[in-house]
Amino acid sequence: MTTQMIICLVIFAITLVSYMLNKIPMWLTAMLSMAALYFTGCVDADTALSGFANTNTILMATMFVVASGFRRTSLVQTMCSAIMKLTRGSFKVAYFGYLLVAALLTNFIASPMVVYAIVSPLLAALCDTANESRSKYMFPAMVVCVSCCGILPLPTAIQMAGQFTGFMESYGFTGMTFDPIYFFKGAWIILPVVLAWATFLGPKQTPANPVVPIQTAAKSNGPSTESQLSPLVDKLGIVVFFATILCLIFSAQLGQQTWFIALAGSLLMVLFGVVDSKNALRDIPWDMLMLFVGALALGGALTSTGAGDMIGNALATAVGGTHNNYVLGALFFIIPFILTQFMLNRSVSAVFVPICLLTCSALGANPVGLILLVNAGSLTAFLTPMATPAVPMCMADGGYDLKSIIKSGWLITIILPIVYIFYTMTVLPAF
Q1: Domain ranges in the chain?
Q2: Cβ-count burial 2-20 (b if 16+ within 10 Å, e if not)
Q3: Per-residue CA distances from 133 to 113, 128, 204, 222, 410 (Å)
Q4: pLDDT tens for residues 16-67?
Q5: Of the candidates 255, 341, 329, the residue with the CA atom closest to the CA atom of residue 302
């Protein structure tokens, strides 16, 4: 273990403690952590500051503006009223409908953050219309967006399957392909489990009221107070929102990056007057963006110093040589699941898929089920703002701090590994 590794792990531990204690704002903790990592040489300037230019940071900020513009249109209130009428005033039924929409969209769009940004303004407006606390429902909806991603054999799964096939070919598994149907075969049970939790148990575990002020929209009078646009501007806001969403869904076919599509949508919202320039800047939760930037720097430090690899490899070698399907399944789900709470999911997946394939090659194991578990462990992380950009967005929408996120998510965090490991290793065993 090098000196840089030790320093990085110490800063990492102090940062987590500060997040938990919440004595100073979390964005300030994140920035202090970033400064300490740079000062001690754990990251260089480019790595420390790269979060400010990260495409996810741009995507988050601009999608807040797009969502803010959509909230100001008359369609949000109209849709909420129609849904409440269709469901005969049942908030629970309407809420479940939004969860189903989120579960479906996250299988078309490979970014849970984008899906959450689509669903969240509608759900927030529904909560305000029904006089329900946003804090009870925004976190469960975010969990659905994250946990249900890529399970159905739709565009998201097809994209990921191609990546995993490439990995398998690179590591000697020639002639084998990772079929998109494997995601459904090995994980379909997660859909009803997560939806049931989000519908019945999740709202009971979340705070009854915001723990920190909700910054993304004025909650007290509902969305109708912001729907004071001229008829033309109102229609333009609706068109821009849905055009942005359609372009995000078909970004690969259009050959455009999602961050650019969201940026274009946000600029059009301001240009057409759906959101004025002052409100556009106000509606972006800068503290959450700073928190995310600091989290990226910490994840970069764990990667560049080798501390992340050291933790993963140490745990992997602890059970090396086993031919027990469930032990291997637990290894390749739980370790990425834990590490992804503190490092971006794509980084963790990129590290552990090769480790998984090398282990399978050494043991003569079928890698399909284990790769699926690595992917699932890397995706289904939502207890810290470092796991996925959807978390800091949700924290801003629901008024959560880190303690309330952990309290809200502890049960589903236990359920997911148990279901994934036992079910996936039963239907797609390694041996």
Answers
A1: 51-150+194-216+223-287, 155-187+305-427
A2: eebbebbbebbeebbebbe
A3: 22, 7, 12, 11, 20
A4: 778 767 678 878 888 999 999 999 998 889 888 888 887 777 877 887 788 7
A5: 341
